[in-house]
């Protein structure tokens, strides 16, 4: 299988598999801490506390974690932004730079993108623990939770096998959204896709399959095993998220419920088998005037 990572090879194609220690979240945390220590030894970095953190995530999604600074906090800047769009490797950036220059009637290579003017730049390795070419579920888990994971899984360590509900328990990992909320900050998710999509869902959900948007998309063995769909986790895992804006409304409503915006279109009807109205449940859990 081309594209899988492995320790054994047969011809030119590696057999699926990865090192056992990659299943341990602490392995990735220690690597991150070591990288930070090395960076601090090389140069004096800005260690002030930002007022806000905004993550512009791949495929157009955005997750925002922010809040006012507290007395005594060091604060010399407005915030920090991370913008990792999908498929943005060196070759894509190079093509964009050339196109910009040619649109300005130059050769292209001599042009500069705004990011080329940044005082500090770096490269990152993007892969899933079991795939050389990653998907947005595993990568979202990596940059939101700090843990590399298997392809197709969100908010869990590499000890979880895709589609296998019984491998999930005890292998959940928390995200920067949870850390910010636990630190008393206001948090929210704003996305141009469905709020249960792999990228935003890694901020709040723990699932063996990125496609388990509602219980209507889950196999019987997963439901019987006690795994919860991603839409339900959005409402239950971090119930005090201040703002949730995005699509995917049908995963919040009982099966065959007509959509308020597209009542005549079958593809937009509700998909939930448990007959729950998650939008109502979320709104009722909020104080009046505190719902978005």
From TrEMBL:
Alphabetic keyword roster: Biomineralization, Calcium, Cell membrane, Disulfide bond, Glycoprotein, GPI-anchor, Hydrolase, Lipoprotein, Magnesium, Membrane, Metal-binding, Phosphoprotein, Signal, Zinc
Pfam families for the chain: Alk_phosphatase (PF00245)
A single GO cellular-component term on record: plasma membrane
Database matches in SMART domains: alkPPc
Main location: membrane
Taxonomic superkingdom: Eukaryota
Places the protein is found: Cell membrane; Extracellular vesicle membrane
Cofactor: how bound: Binds 2 Zn(2+) ions. Binds 1 Mg(2+) ion.
Record: active site: 136
Complex formation: Homodimer.
Family recorded in the similarity comment: Belongs to the alkaline phosphatase family.
Name the UniProt record assigns to this protein: Alkaline phosphatase
Organism: Nothoprocta ornata
